[in-house]
Structures are given as C-alpha cells and as structure tokens.
Specification:
Immunoglobulin-like; 369 residues; elongated; seven-stranded mixed beta sheet; 4 domains
C-alpha cells in the first residue's frame, strides 16, 4: 500500500477513504465497475487529491460543512491525477463538501466522521469510521522500531471502534498510529494521531508536545511540597497533532520549569502527574563522553549540536543505576542504539532529554567549555 498524501509525521508508516454520498453523471455517460473520478483526502492536511479521466482538466470545489468556499481551481491532470491545496488555514475536516468535474463526469463527496486516537493509560487505540466497514490501522512496533504492525478493524453500528494492540507491550507517549479506508468506489481517506506526550525544558517557561490533531488541554506547574499552583497554560494541537505553550502565573508572568515542581495535566493524559526531576551533565572532550544523571528516570537521549544548528552526534541509552546516573560514550558505536559519533568540541551544545515513567520528557542543555 502506498501513501497518497505527503505528511511530515509519516516517516515510519506506510496509505484510506470517504463515504460516497452523491454520484452525478453528465447526460449519456455510463460507469464501468467504478466511477472514473476518485477522491483522496487526509484529515488535517491542506490538500485534497484524486484521479480523473486521463488528460482531462478537472474543476474542483472544496467547501466546509456549512457550504463556505475553502478552495477551488481548474487543474490539468498529470497521468490522470490531480491535487488541490489551500494555505495554512485550510485543512480537511469532517463535513467538508468536495465536488470534481472533468468535462464528462461529475462527483460530489462529503467527508464523514473518520478519526483515530491513542490512549496511553488504557493502552488502546480508538476512533470513528464508516459503520461496519473494514478499516486498516497501522503503527510502529516501538519508539525505535523500523517496521510497523498492520491490522483490520471494523466500526460498530454507531461508527465507533476500539482496538487493543497485543503486539505492543504498551502504548507509550508519542506512539504514532495511522488509520485508512478504501471505499467500494476506490476513494481513499486517512487520519493519524500520536499518544499524548509532552516535553518540559528546565530553566525555560516553554513546553511542547504531540497528541491527537486539534485536541485541547490544560497544563499546570505546582509546588512539589504544598501542591499550590504556580503557573498554568492551555494549548490546542495543530492539524499535525503538535502543540506548544508557555507557563504563566496568575499575573501573566512567565514561570520557568524547575526541579521539584509537580507537573499536572490530566486533560492531556490521565497519568500526566509527576515531579520534575533534576538533570545534570558534563562533557569530556578528550574522551568524547558525556556524564550525568536523569533523576527518577530511565531512558535518555543526548544530542550534540554545533553552530549553526547542525546535529553533530546523537545517542539513546538507559541510566546505569536507580539514581539515574549515566556515562554516554560517543567513541563506542556498539554501546548504544541510534548512535552517531560526535567528536565533542568547545562551544558545542549538549542537549540531555530524560524520559519519565509516564512517557513524557524533561530536557536540559549546556555549552561545552
């Protein structure tokens, strides 16, 4: 199965559909097994595409659920294929009305309920789709896996479905999942999401994360001892599921993330409630090593960045004791997975990211003297 639309978060996954509402024919035309005009769409994408009569010019109209025009255009097909794109404010959404005419045939389409989400607490994928139709769900075998699992699922009479993956140990933060459907008329629809995952940056007020596209959540920093709220933030994911925000107090002032604070965001994930750990680190240029600790953590990543923003080295590993200590040897390519040599130099920026038990991350960086 090949991917039909480009998407920045689809590096590991490999295809998906619309409910046909109206099929119109020009006078005297007849269909073969399938209509010659097909639609292809991905929720959250700013383009729609499809197929039409070879060599034709297709007039395409894309409207929202209320009938307001999003984009329209006349497109000369390339090998029978066409594509229509909007700007950054346009994206495919439930209820969008599509119409395409190639001079011989005309078709109309309305995008139905079709969605996927990942629950990292209950370890299930869930969503919506055409009732009692066969959908395909795909997801990477793990955070470092270079292959995917694929399964067929069917929504119930109410158009809802739930799937518990038995080939994953559990659904972790940032787990990517992709859903597709090919209709009887060879139209395609696709949607994707990531399990909720957030990264806090020590010494900064900003945070970033991924989740279901368009999902909204509230975030808070509290005193780790008294539980008094220190700062809060609200964020909504973009069409690709990415979100970002800044912690502010009740007066609107920025509040930086610090060790010992309690991070809490239950509307983001039911287990997003943990104490911000301390992170330490130092670099040895001669030995090409980074030594440090990820308190109350287990897995870590280290990036070596060299001006102007070039990644010089990368390493993924596990802390060596219950206190979170580690020694990352960039001169030993066999010690860690995902390893890239660094040859650490003065002024390099070392970024240490520590993964928390809930799957979220805390990050800290320093300059090599």
């Amino acid at each position: 199965m090949t991917r039909l639309l480009n998407h920045p978060r689809r590096a590991l996954v490999v295809g998906a559909t619309l409910a046909l509402l109206v099929v119109g024919l020009m006078p005297g035309a007849t269909f073969a097994a399938n209509p010659p005009i097909h639609f292809e769409a991905s929720y959250g994408n700013n383009c729609i595409s499809g197929k039409a009569t070879l060599g034709s010019t297709v007039d395409v109209t894309w409207r929202d659920s209320a009938g307001a025009l999003k984009v329209s255009g006349s497109i000369v097909t390339t090998n029978g294929r066409w594509q229509l794109c909007g700007d950054g404010t346009v994206f495919a959404a439930v209820g969008d009305r599509l119409k395409a005419a190639d001079g011989t045939f005309t078709r109309k389409f309305t995008l139905p309920e079709f969605s996927v989400a990942a629950d990292r607490v209950n370890d299930v994928f869930y969503g919506t789709g055409p009732a009692n139709r066969t959908l395909v769900i795909e997801y990477p075998a793990g955070r470092l896996a270079d292959y995917t699992y694929s399964h067929y699922i069917r929504p119930g009479d109410d158009g809802r479905w739930t799937f518990r993956p038995t080939d994953l140990e559990d659904i972790e933060a940032d787990q990517f999942v992709w859903l597709s459907w090919v209709s009887p008329n060879k139209d395609t629809l696709e949607a994707d999401a990531s399990a909720a995952g957030v990264t806090l940056i020590l010494g900064k007020a900003k945070f970033r994360g991924t989740t279901t596209p368009f999902a909204s959540a509230n975030f808070a920093l509290r005193d780790g001892s008294t539980n008094v709220k220190l700062a809060s933030a609200a964020a909504t994911a973009d069409p690709n599921g990415n979100l970002a925000g800044q912690f502010r107090d009740s007066h609107g002032n920025s509040v930086i993330v610090a060790p010992g604070q309690r991070f809490k965001a239950l509307s983001f994930a039911a287990d997003a409630d943990w104490i911000v750990p301390n992170i330490t680190g130092s670099a040895n240029k001669a030995a090409d090593t980074v030594t440090g600790s990820c308190m109350a953590s287990g897995y870590f990543t280290i990036e070596i960045m060299r001006s102007p923003g070039h990644e010089r080295g990368y390493l993924f590993g596990h802390t060596s004791d219950p206190n979170g200590n580690f020694v990352a040897d960039f001169a030993d390519p066999d010690e860690f997975p995902g390893y890239r040599m660094a040859n650490i130099k003065s002024s390099d920026r070392v970024i240490i990211t520590c993964r928390q038990p809930a799957g979220d991350n805390v990050q800290w960086s320093f300059r090599v003297p």
